[in-house]
Amino acid sequence: MFYTVNKINLFVKDEGNGQPSLVFLHFWGGSSQTWNGVTALLRDKFRCISYDHRGWGRSDKPQTGYNIESLASDTLALLETLQLDNYILVGHSMGGKVAQYIAAKKPAQLKKLILVAPSPSGPTVLPAEILEGMRNAYTSPEGINGTIDHVFKAGDLSPEIRARLVADMEKQIDSSRLGWTNIALPEDVSKGVDSISIPTLIIAGENDVVDTPERLEREVKSIIPGSEMVIVDGVGHLSMLQKPERIAELISAFI
């Protein structure tokens, strides 16, 4: 279904019942479908809400609004529309940076925070050649598949899941694709992250070379007081697609 927030239409999947509600935020290139394998295992116990960020999936694709504050504003406006008073944010990569920004604002309704291979809240500054490669990574099927295999270290995906992921990565415009690399990735939204006081779980992938366990230990876990980190064996940057059962198990246990 679609909800209109901040003058744009967001595609939202709302499944299951039970408290707390789990709100899933996807990565740069993903969609609400990124979480299908996880929500299928959790929706019998919890209300699971996932949506396509602006610029991705079936949501509207405006030319602006791809900084972290704007993406977070969409999330908060959607939560208000849904009248959620007891929820947990589950953010992956780009969605993890958005989730940290929101948690730093200390909304009373947010009870716990789960970060899956999150992009740190501080700026990510990359060499020019890597950044240029990222800007062009989603512009061809060859580039997308190469990114899945060699950057995200997810060559073990089934043909069905890979096809769905490739289709998601193609559903963007220049503004949404470049909004991450040019605006949100180098953005510093760390203010207040060191005072997040809700229980926080960080899930890292053993083989992740995008946001390595070492980086997450240094730039996320060490900053968020009392946070805990779990490393999932045998996965890269897309653990929710590679091992959805393990991610659902960790989420359920943490709740």
Give the SSE map.
Layout: E1 2-5, E2 8-15, E3 21-25, H1 36-42, E4 47-51, H2 68-82, E5 87-92, H3 94-104, E6 110-116, H4 128-136, H5 141-151, H6 159-170, H7 174-184, E7 200-205, H8 213-221, E8 228-232, H9 239-242, H10 244-254
Parallel strand pairs: 3-4, 3-5, 5-6, 6-7, 7-8
Antiparallel strand pairs: 1-2, 2-4
Describe the model.
There is one protein chain. This protein has 255 residues and is an alpha/beta fold. The protein has a single domain (2-254), classed as Rossmann fold, CATH 3.40.50. The chain contains ten helices and eight strands. The chain has helices at 36-42, 68-82, 94-104, 128-136, 141-151, 159-170, 174-184, 213-221, 239-242, 244-254, and strands at residues 2-5, 8-15, 21-25, 47-51, 87-92, 110-116, 200-205, 228-232. Strands 1-2-4-3-5-6-7-8 form an eight-stranded mixed sheet, sandwiched between helices. Strand 7, helix 8 and strand 8 form a beta-alpha-beta unit. The longest helix is centred in the N-terminal third of the chain and has 15 residues, at 68-82. It is globular. The two termini are 27 Å apart. The model has no long low-confidence stretch (mean pLDDT 97).
